[in-house]
Every structure is written in structure tokens, then in C-alpha cells.
Amino acid sequence: MIKTEHKHKMEDWLPTSAKEVERRGWDSIDVILFTGDAYIDHPAFGAAVVGRMLEAHGLKVAIVPQPNWRDDLRDFKKLGRPNYFFGVTAGAMDSMVNHYTANRRLRSDDAYTPDGRAGQRPDYASVVYCNILKELYPDVPVLLGGIEASLRRVTHYDYWSDKLRPSILADSKADLLVYGMGEQPLLEIIRLIERGVPIESLKTIPQTAFVIPKEKSLPKNKNWKDLPLFSHEECLSDKTKYAKNFRHVEEESNRWQAARLTQDVGEHTIVINPPYPPMTTGELDASFDLPYTRLPHPRYIAKGPIPAFEMIKFSVNMHRGCFGGCSFCTISAHQGKFIASRSEESILKEVDAISQMPDFKGYLSDLGGPSANMYKMEGKNLKICQRCTRPSCIHPNICTNLDTNHSAMTRLYQAVNEHPNIKKAFIGSGVRYDMLYNNMASNEEKESHKAYMQELIENHVSGRLKVAPEHTSDQVLKIMRKPSFKLFHKFKADFDRINNSKKLNQQIIPYFISSHPGSEEMDMANLACETHDMDFKLEQVQDFTPTPMTVATVIYYSGIHPYTLEETYTPRSKNEKLQQRMYLFWYKKEYQEKIKDRLKSFKRFDMIKKLFPEKDNKTEKQNHKGRKSNFKKKKPSYKSKHRRTT
Predict the structure, then answer these.
(1) Stronger pLDDT, 524 or 640, i.e. the higher one
(2) Between vectors from CA 213 to CA 212 and to CA 218, what angle results, nearest 5°?
(3) How far apart are CA 269 and CA 203, in angstroms?
(4) pLDDT of amino acid 332
(5) What angle do CA 581, 585, 589 make, to 5 degrees?
(6) How far is CA 178 from CA 207, 208, 272, in A?
(7) Is 131 exposed, middle or buried (0-12, 13-18, 19+ CB in 10 A)?
(8) Residue 560's beta-bridge partner residues?
(9) How far apart are CA 441 and CA 176, in angstroms?
(10) How many beta carbons lie within 10 A of that of residue 463, not counting itself?
């Protein structure tokens, strides 16, 4: 149970009920936010960030967490109509990923709900919430945001209905969609609303999207180029056009100076304005330094712990964005590929706040970000970055313009180590080990890589270090936009060397994915053999789940790679997926006979011998013994004796 009463009063959280609004003496509310998550007043949760940011701007903000959409809709009515707008988010995850497994089975829990209870938000929560609000208050603007809205802003493949769906704007009826991290566009929206500009006139704010009638001209902006996409209807009839669309969307999402995208859907046009440039350190600090309680709202005190909060309550996020561009990952589609880093002062201030929490025992669970080791990294010449269209700065090779110096991170880790209330700060985020072996780096960068690796392994591993090679096949890794598995071997060798030199008993925990586009059954068999040779019994594994706005999902649906337009194999049937997945667990008895049977069908007896050497050797010895005893009993003929001797 979370203890909050001795440190905070109810007014320290944004109000969630009419009674809490009344206690503040408000006669109206400027913005009411609806979220599919429980309300946790912490910078890791989008509704809290938006609410605190608007509050800091002088607005009266309330949050309605996990409203009941099944009853008489009283949760949607209890606070009345806001002065400015309703804000809607499905929560920190796409609601369908939150609800269903890779096999489309309903999950039994929800990490963003007290006690992990499932069923507290609807499928396609963004659409459901928006439709209810537009029906109840047709004249009140609805702004839609969050990761579900970001990743569904254009025609997208929806794995759970197994079909292409149009932009979420078409289904939700929202007046404006804010994609990506919302601080910059929301501040501009509020600034213009306060100047008297109606929301229906806000058509040229970066990082927003909206719908207009097809016959209507686009709002004028002389600084933007326009890039029309194939219509939703064209995508439905031609998978190649859908794939081509994705490449434009990904490239423009990750460009410093992007084009405005348009896509026709029926009688309307979806307009997606280009994103803002990356946030400055000062802007990001301002967001993280808001007066969060860092705790769930007191309404949950008797309802059990919230798993997602328990996981991050003693962690610190140092930066946003990821330039890895992994084919199966949505981080860059939502946060962008450019890194926005907090100042050391802001991070240490948060460390100090955590150290004052009543149940803190001195251990930080993570000092990281979307990837552990990208803090403070950017292009050496930012003008080159501003023209770049590469979706990844480190694949197929590390960009020569990328500064991979790890010194700032190493210094920050050491500064946290010196905090009097910190016993140890662990790195829980995944480490991109490929950047530590950048052959094109300067000598200074290479020295920083060695110093970082030493500091990381010696002082910041909680017994197990997470890394994500994802696969062992170069062919699959190329599609994943991940480095060769040879680099993982190199990193593990250095990890073991440092551990041995310091007499540390620590492990690497590698993450792997089965059934990824491009992965064939023999690729998974090779993965089993490689991990067997390295003495790994895998725990952190997952079956590929197609999510909107990723290269891998486009391949899964269309069968072609959106950049090369080449046909690419993808395991789609349940049987294909199960056959690939079982190789991850070669060490479990229930899979061993099945694996042997499959390998026999491919005539890969060498793999059987490698994976199950003891059993095969026993069998071979028994067979040999049987042959030997039979030989003794049988008296050979002259001819057979002659054949043996010759």
C-alpha cells in the first residue's frame, strides 16, 4: 500500500472529481483530460505531464482517469464542460497492445491499473472516449494525443482486426490531433486560444493533424512543402502503395525540416503538419521540473499497487528520443530520432527528490532513457543532421557525423554515485553495445567507450545487465536494423573480462524476438544453436507483435519491404509462429522432441547433435555397443571378412 498522507495533501494532485474541484474553490475548469491509465502524478506518464504543464501556464486542469464507458457515462459528465477543450489519451500504451498478446489472446492484467486489474479501459480507447465526448458535448473541442493517436495518424495496419484502418482522426471525430511528445504544440495551442483564436482555426501549428473537406484548400504556410500520400482507398486496393506511404511517413517524422503530409480518406483530407525541432535542454528540464508528487493519486490507496508505477518509481529518465530506428520499435515514431537531453542539474535534482521518498532504500532502479546510452548525443555538425533523411543514425553503420562520446554519461553516473543517499544506481534500460565498438570514432570517443563500459559493468549492474541483440541471423538483423551478432560476442567477452577482473558474479540477459519479418525457421534453429553454445537459457523473449507505424508491421501486412519494395517472407500462421518460438526454449523438455522432428525434416542432424549432445552421445554409444555385441556373436563368412579387411 502507498503511504502518502503524512507528506502530501489532496490538493497536491490535480483534481479527479467534482468534490476535489470544489475543495479548490473553482467554479469552472479550463481543460479536462481523459486517460486510459490510472492517474500517477509522475513525469513518466503523459496525462500528468500535460496536466502539470497546463497548470504551470495558469490553467485550471482536471484529470478523469479510466472513465467507465459501459454505464450511464457519469464519469464523462461529472466535471461538466471545460472552458477550453477536452484532452483525450488512451494512456502510455496503445490500448490494443495493452489488451492482447501476440497470439491475440486477451491479457489477464493491466500494468497501468491498481492491482493490475484488466478491463478498465475499452479496446481502441482513444476512439471510444472521443466519440462519447463528441456525442455528449458536440460543441466542445476535443484534442487527441498519446502514443495510440501518434501511431495511428495515417492509414495503418491494425493487427487485432487484421485490416487497414484509416487515420484515427476519421474514426474518433477529434477536432485536433497532437502527435509525438505534446509540450511544444500544446503550449502554442494555449497561447493562441488565450489570444482569442478558436480551435477550429488552428491549422498551422507544427506537430498537429486535422481533417478538412477534400475540396477545401490547404492552409497557407510558405515555409512548408506539401507531400501528398496515396489515399486510404488506394492503400486498401494496393499493398505496395501502403508500403510506399510508410517510407514517406517515417522519413518525414524524423527530419528536422519535414514536409506537411496529406492523405485523402473518403470525402475528407487528413492534414499532418511537420513536427517541431527537438526540444532544447531548457525546455525538457522545464517539463521534468514541474511539481509532481511522483505518486499515484490518493484515490488508489486502498486499491492495491499499480505495477507500472512500482517499476519506475525509483528510476530517472535522462533523455528522450532514440536514433536506433529499430524496425519493430515505435519510439522514434513517437519521440523522434533526435535526442533531447536533460541537464545534469535537473537529473540530480530528481535523484535528490527520489532519495527523500519515505520508502526509498537507496537504490535507483534505472538511470537511462529509451536506450540507456544515448544521453547528450547529437551530430557533430547539426547542419548535416537537419538535411538527413536516414531513419537510423547507427544502421547500417554508425554515421560519421554522430558524436558517440560517452563521457557525459560516465560523469553523470559518477555524480549520482557520490550522492549521500544513493547506495547504487542501476542501469535498467537496454544498452546499445554497438556504439561502444564504433571503428570510425575518434581516439577520444574510443577512450570514452572503454571508460563507460568499465563504469557501467563495475558499478551499475544489478546482477543482470539487459541488452537486446534480438536475433543471431545477419539477414534478419539487417531487416531489424540491428548490428551483427558478432558485436554481441565482443561485448560479452568484455563484460566477462571486467567481471572476472573485479571478481563480480554478474550476468548478461539478452532479449530475442521470434517470428520477425525475414526470419525463417532455420534462422531460429541457428539462434538456438548459437545461444546454446554461449550457455544461455533464454528468459527475455517475445513473439513479434505488429504495431502501427513500424517497418516490420508494414512488411508483415504487405509482404514487401517499404524501402526496397522487395518481397520479404514473414511467418504469419499460428503454426509458423509456434514453430519459430519453440527454438528459443530448446532447453525445455516439452519442446525437445518437436525440435528434433523439425530438424530431421530439414536433414540438420548436425544441429540436433549440437543442441542435444548428451542424449545423442548416449544413443550413439548404445547403438555402438549393440553393434559390437552382435559382431561378436555372428561368425563372419569368408567374403564378409575379406570385405572388412580390405
Answers:
(1) 524
(2) 55
(3) 13
(4) 87
(5) 125
(6) 6, 5, 10
(7) middle
(8) 567
(9) 44
(10) 10
* Tens-digit pLDDT profile for residues 128-163: 999 999 999 999 999 999 999 999 999 999 999 999
Specify the 3-state DSSP secondary structure of 186. Answer: helix
pLDDT category at 540 given cuts 50, 70, 90 is confident
Count of residues in the chain: 646
Indicate the annotated binding residues for [4Fe-4S] cluster. Answer: 322, 326, 329
Q: How far apart are CA 64 and CA 68, in angstroms?
A: 10
The residue type found at 212 is I
Taking the CA atoms of residue 595, residue 598, residue 602 and residue 606 in that order, the dihedral angle to the nearest 10 degrees is 20
Instruction: Yes or no: say if 149 and 96 are a contact pair by the CB < 8 Å rule.
Output: no
Task: Please write down the long-range contacts of 414-422, taking CB distance under 8 Å and 24 or more positions apart.
Answer: 414/455, 415/344, 415/348, 416/347, 416/348, 416/351, 416/364, 416/367, 417/459, 419/348, 419/351, 419/352, 419/355, 421/352, 421/355, 421/356, 421/360, 421/362, 422/351, 422/355, 422/362, 422/363, 422/364
C-alpha cell at 242: 501502403
Instruction: Check if the beta carbon of residue 65 is closer than 8 Å to that of residue 89.
Output: no
Integer Cα distance of 202 and 309 in angstroms:
35
Provide the grid cell at 173: 471525430
Block residue for cell numbers 486498401: 236
8-state DSSP, 201: G
CA 512 from chain centre, in angstroms, equals 15
